User: Which sequence fits this backbone?
């Protein structure tokens, strides 16, 4: 079954651009006889505004965009934690505490600098990165074949 989704952050009411994205994903799902899922990205508490999720749902519904299902990312934190604990045991997965400024100074992408670091990195103050052996590629339905 085809599943389309719209995933706004509840930082306030939807703006016109977000509403257009919601409409496009809704129309695509329905054109493919699919399911349209609303996933509320409420994982950044300082940015989330109280009541914004409800306002977003009301806005969508007032434009005829009624989701077939709704989920809140914050309701799945235990699942994400378990997955991260499994992921970090893999040899090509590592903690990285490089700042954006440091990454930009080394060419703009994290090139595994922290993968072989000798000092300890606090996992609570780090990103989890995956070292890929090959360049990812995918077929974009609009742009065609893409490679990173």
Assistant:
């Amino acid at each position: 079954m085809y599943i389309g989704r719209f995933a706004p952050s509840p930082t306030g009411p939807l703006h016109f651009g977000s509403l257009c994205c919601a409409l496009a994903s809704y129309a695509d799902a329905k054109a493919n006889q699919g399911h349209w899922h609303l996933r509320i990205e409420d994982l950044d508490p300082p940015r989330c505004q109280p009541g914004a999720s409800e306002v977003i749902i009301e806005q969508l519904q007032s434009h005829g965009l009624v989701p077939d299902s709704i989920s809140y990312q914050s309701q799945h934190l235990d699942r994400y934690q378990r997955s991260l604990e499994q992921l970090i045991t893999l040899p090509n997965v590592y903690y990285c505490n490089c700042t954006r400024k440091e990454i930009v100074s080394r060419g703009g992408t994290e090139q595994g600098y922290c993968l072989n670091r000798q000092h300890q990195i606090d996992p609570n103050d780090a990103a989890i990165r995956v070292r890929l052996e090959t360049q990812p590629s995918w077929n974009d339905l609009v742009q065609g074949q893409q490679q990173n």
About this structure: The helical segments are 16-31, 52-62, 77-87, 100-105. The chain has two domains: 3-76, 88-134. The CA atoms of residues 70 and 126 lie 30 Å apart.
